[in-house]
Request: fold
Amino acid sequence: MTARDLSRHTAGELAAAVASGEVSAVEVTQAHLDRIGAVDGGVHAYLHVDADAALAAAADVDARRAAGAELGPLAGVPLALKDVITTSDMPTTAGSRILEGWRPPYDATIVQRLRDAGVIILGKTNMDEFAMGSSTENSAFGPTHNPWDLSRIPGGSGGGSAAALASFQAPLAIGTDTGGSIRQPAAVTGTVGVKPTYGGVSRYGLIACASSLDQAGPCARTVQDAALLHEVIAGHDALDSTSIDRPVPDVAGAARQGAEGDLSGLRVGVVSELGGEGYQAGVEARFHETVELLGKLGADVVEVSCPHFSYGLAAYYLILPSEVSSNLARFDAMRYGLRVGDDGTRSAEDVMNATRGTGFGAEAKRRIILGTYALSSGYYDAYYGQAQKVRTLISRDFAAAFEQVDVLVSPTTPTTAFPLGERVDDPLAMYKNDLCTIPSNLAGNASASFPCGLADEDGLPVGLHVMAPVMADERVYRVGAAVEQAYVTQWGGYLLDQAPEVEERQ
Amino acid sequence: MSSISRDEVAHLARLARLELEPDELDHLAGQLDQIIGAVGQVSQVAADDIPPTSHALPITNVFRDDVRRPCLSSEAALSGAPEAEEGRFRVPQILGEEQ
Reply:
């Protein structure tokens, strides 16, 4: 394995090579640090890279191996961590000026589990401020660029994690998904992103955007790698009161089964409402081909109507800002983070006002005001209350659909990656990126995006969106692995093998 | 559905403890009006007899055994404080002269 090779391998292959002694975890980590040094100047996937900590963690894995300790299935594999998850040894900013330079006093449960598994955390990835956005342009620290075309968005909010994968700066990444922030970036970068069932992965140490919707999950270049990472981070955590106390679905087993290419007996529903007007032709073409492929692999494909999905976007943009306006109240300039204007004469309230006005970016402000409005007396019933009822109806649409089919499918997002700057001051256009992904957040079920080809008109990646019932996460992996295996055979490699080489720029 | 005025945005910003510049108020008032117009379509759904959902999955109280366990030290808790003094968070004055 050469250094360039090391950054091209799957996580599973790297772990096997470390376990067998073919390469050391330090060599694998150094190869990725070198790759970051070579290409991240142009991509800007990372906000912070900690080479010393990563190499020390890798050396520890090598030492444990040398001592004969049994290593986990991802030991020695590097990972890029979204900067919304607390790390005791690295800054955690959530993409916001208000947390610039903040070092949390504790590790998130996810981080603890990654460390225990011997996964090497390379650094923290860029994101839209407090995970609010679909392009990373709402980051206070500048946007991330899509490795397929550096003038385009990498999706968001987890654009940094997705771009790190797509530019081979890490084989694994962690994302968080409140309305599509794992799946939409995966779709537009040609990578794999899974939003587990709500409560499947601990939220302890995940800086809250909208607590009833937020869910962390695995991002990777292959379905099997995502499954292996899912098994490391998932499972009950007493520190999160919404964590599900049930066994983790056998997602790695399902991915292996899916890769055998037989979907006989699987019932697939195409959601009627998620397509048509507003969907790019190349996205629809690749989606429909993939639906045909599912049929060829043995699945029974039918069309299913989920009539209330059309109101999902509207309900989401009332529920989310309402929760955001409450969650972001904790940034009060008193206990951590930014404080401005404390000149000895101004009151705590003045300092708080000034700090929040300075520390939050435009989208955070927009959503705080919108949420404050939706929750104010006189409007509560018409907006927040009504949105919560629509949320019930969307869950019922899912329940009815899952009586007829095992999984639902749609495109992940209506268009391919658009140019940076195009929608940055047009919130409604930006929000429409989440049209297909939002229903799963509202209902809490498992869903994922998998690469399904390139749009004819722009040569950019398209994602297949697969939705499964609560705690049936293994179904999305089975479908994703079957599609991946068929396309790898057809294309002679992964979709990312067709990506242009990212220009080296320090 | 009602529209949202610049004064109303200023009022909401005060409630949210969020200092906005005059140009931000102008810009946000226009955008929020648009957004609220769009999200207001939830009112088209007939849902009078539908119960609201606050959480995707049913949640119940979670208890743990009433035993001591380690927690953050005061040094760790204060490590990110904008200012600390004598092992406590130092904050700007809370009450004005007249109070």
